[in-house]
Amino acid sequence: MSLAVESQGGERFVQMTYLEALVQAQIEELERDDRVIMMGEDIDVYGDGKLMQRFDATRIWNTPISETSFTGVGIGAAIAGLRPIVSLGIASFVYLASDQIINQAAKLRYMTGGQVRVPIVFRCCMYYGSSLAAQHSDRPYPVFMNIPGLKIVSPTSPSDIKGLLKSSVRDDDPVLFVEDTKLWSMKGDVPTNPDHLVPIGKADVRRGGTDVTIVAIAGAMRPALEAVKALALEGVSAELIDPRTLKPLDMETIMASVAKTGRLVLVENAHRTGNVSAEIASDVCERILDQLKKPIVRLCAPDVHVPFSPGLEATLYPSKEDIVVAVRRLV
Amino acid sequence: MTLTLTQLREAYRRMLRIRLFEEEGTRLFKAGRIPGAYHSSIGQEATIVGACMALRDEDGMTGTHRSHGHPIGKGADLNALMAELMGKATGICKGRGGSMHLADNSVGIVGESAIVGGGIPLATGCGLAAKVRRSGQVTLCFFGDGAVNQGTFHESLNMASLWKLPVVYLCENNGYAIRTSLVRSHAQTSIAKRAESYGMPGLEIDGQDVQAVYEATSNSASRARGGEGPTLIEAKTYRFDEHNVGLFVPTAYRTVEEIEHHKVHRDPITLFRHVLLQTGVSEMELVGIETEVARSVAEATRFAENSPLPDPKTLHDYMYSDPIRSAETNLLSTI
After folding, report:
1. What is the rounded distance in angstroms from the CA atom of residue B230 to the CA atom of residue B153?
2. What DSSP element (H or E) covers A214?
3. Of A142, A294, B131, B201, whose Cβ has the fewest other Cβ atoms within 10 Å?
4. Is the pLDDT assigned to residue B327 strictly greater than 50?
5. Cβ–Cβ gap B156/A69 under 8 Å
6. From CA B45, how far away is CA A139, in angstroms rounded?
7. Rounded CA gap, B214 and A108, in Å?
8. Closest to A272 in 3D by CA, of A247, A248, A246, A299
């Protein structure tokens, strides 16, 4: 971590990676509020900012391999007044915990007529593109888009992951917090303000533009940023939007951009059927079809499992070139 | 620990409140006044009340799809429960839960889970919160014999024992998971014995004897409060009615003789009434309690019948702590 720098507005920033910003956010929230606890497999051993050195054993719970139930234990603890961060590790493990997330966390507030609240964060990290094969390489968030009662966030910058983790911990509803290993090493300026909060449900316009709107989800932001730069050299002005929150989607920001550009490219590393791009595309068609100059383009992983062999997996996710080619066809 | 004379009267009152509430509910269900499915607790009153009487007001509880008895056992008001069964706006869950989910948080209930075994991790989490906050609270976790074959039972009891969480796991073993008997689904038919594999005490008790249930739960709760960890209690009980009222049973899975035997010789209320008379509670006092309870149940029915159904405009209420705009709500507002 480098030294803090001061911006013109007086706010202080430090440069750190996406992963460092996440760890920093957790430490700050654990220090700020003693109701915040962390649970997960091996979290006292691995990463997570050497949490055991800073916090006692009642704050950091190293769990047995029991994803369903330690997730449920977190939910029970949340109802009883704590604010747990449940770390599910590799994102495909979220399927094991899905009964507790869906049938309990997401539903209990409604089913009890508001008698209980479930302030909990379920962290899961998407590993893919690194030859771990289908059971360890997944992007499971589209499954949860269809669950009312959940909020889903997936930040793509160091500043946003810090601000959104903090907002999620302080939120009174269950939040599925989806991280992306493809972004771990990305660096950026992160506010040092311990109350740096990024609101849930608010998209970010990462680059302003007038010719085409590109919406990139999670790790797809990386090739999208490169594509926007390359397109600029060709004289194409692309507006790049990061929804940041996948549920509820900030459709106002996306539609305002599409109304301006008349062209929409959606980029996402999840499988094509029923993913977030499908939801955005259908919403745009339902509400502002007449503003579109060209059909919407969706660049996603095909409906095939993530293969082990690098030779097969490399072709799976949309690349910078795919995005550039798609945009060229539209403008 | 044994119940005092005042507590004995209160235990009888609560058991009777469950019995009469369920009889009234069953009648209303058959008359079409209660929608959905009706799961009656009749026959299991001693297990519920004996366990609940061992708790303090601030202690937590989780329950099951057979959810009506649990809040009543913990001392809940009947009006909002009956209104919930009818899906009324004044229901304890504002008409969002119904028969399988009569959770009354004001008496400490965290949730009544109709996903079998789903409440076991939640109770364990309440125990964890009590330990973190050093609140001294104990959580009572009700589940049925069917739930012990779920993974959540195994995972949760392991964690609770490992971390010495203040939880009392109480199995209402009524012998049948819907139509499947214990011997047809459990390789180890002693549920109490399973406790050994988690390094916690396992007790098997007569669930039709309210005093036995109280004593076992009370001792387990003291143990939990003292930081010694959880206990598994298997209370042997029996459900007098079908799994849910009116359930079609193409082939008999239990004999008429078996049911009659329990109704005649193992009715927890009849058994307890005898005990009370022998203990020195007068017939007059018991009749007084019976009259008062009947009046409360009638009042609950009146309250529920006179309550309105929820306004469809409130459909989205209680979804999120802060109202969020979704495509759905936007569309609704433009229609």
Report:
1. 13
2. strand A212-216
3. A294
4. no
5. yes
6. 48
7. 29
8. A299
Q: For residues A191 and A198, give the distance between their C-alpha atoms in angstroms, rounded to a whole number.
A: 11
Strands A175-180 and A204-207: unpaired
Determine, for residues B111 and A116 on separate chains, whether the beta-carbon distance falls below 8 Å.
Answer: yes
- The answer, yes or no, to whether residue B312 has pLDDT greater than 50, is yes
CATH 3.40.50.920-classified regions of chain A: 204-330
Question: What amino acid occupies position A310?
Answer: P
Burial classification of residue B294, based on how many CB atoms lie within 10 Å of its CB (0-12 exposed, 13-18 middle, 19 or more buried): middle
Domain borders along chain B are 5-334
pTM attached to this predicted model = 0.96
Contact B171, B189 (CB under 8 A): no
Identify the CATH homologous superfamily for domain B5-334.
Thiamin diphosphate (ThDP)-binding fold, Pyr/PP domains (3.40.50.970)
Q: What is the pLDDT of residue A48?
A: 56
Measure Cα distances from B173 to B20, B37, B44 in Å: 22, 21, 9
Edge to edge, the sheet with strand B139-144 lists B109-113, B60-64, B139-144, B167-173, B231-236, B202-206
- Integer-rounded Cα Rg, in Å, for chain B is 20
Cα A76 from Cα A155, distance rounded (Å): 27
Would residue A136 show up in a list of annotated catalytic residues for this protein? Answer: yes
Nearest residue to B166 (alpha-carbon basis) of B144, B142, B140, B191: B140
Q: Would you call A228 helix, strand, or coil by DSSP?
A: helix
pLDDT of residue B333: 39
Residue B249 reports pLDDT greater than 90: no
Which regions in chain A score pLDDT beneath 70?
Answer: 1-4, 8, 44-50
Q: What percent of chain B has pLDDT over 70?
A: 96
* Chain B residues near residue A116 by CB distance under 8 angstroms: 103, 105, 110-111
Amino acid at A278: A
- From the list B113, B125, B324, the residue facing A73 with the nearest CB is B125
| Alpha-helix residue ranges (DSSP H) falling in A38-179 | 51-54, 67-79, 94-99, 107-111, 141-145, 158-170
Q: Is the peptide bond before A318 cis (omega within 30 degrees of 0)?
A: no
User: Quick one: what percent of chain B has pLDDT higher than 90?
Assistant: 93
What is the widest separation between alpha-carbon atoms in chain A?
A: 58
Q: Taking a contact as any Cβ pair under 8 Å apart, which residues of chain A between 287 and 326 contact chain B?
A: none
How far are the Cα atoms of A139, A169, B1, B325 from residue A202, in angstroms, in the given order? 21, 17, 57, 11
Looking at chain A, the domain(s) classified CATH 3.40.50.970 span 5-191
pLDDT in tens, B25-70: 999 999 999 999 999 999 999 999 999 999 999 999 999 999 999 9
CA atoms of A183 and A47, how far apart (whole Å):
16
Secondary structure class of A217 (helix, strand, coil): coil
Residue among A51, A47, A50, A57 at smallest CA distance from A18: A47
The CA distance from A178 to A221, in Å, is: 14
Query: Is B58 part of the contact surface with chain A (CB cutoff 8 Å)?
Result: no
Which CATH number is A204-330's, of 3.40.50.150, 3.30.530.20, 3.30.1490.10, 3.40.50.920?
3.40.50.920
B125 interfaces chain A, CB cutoff of 8 Å: yes
Instruction: Find the distance separating the first CA and the last CA of chain A, reported in whole Å.
Output: 41
B92: which 2 tokens? 């304890």
Residue B323: strand, helix, or coil: coil
B145, pLDDT greater than 50: yes
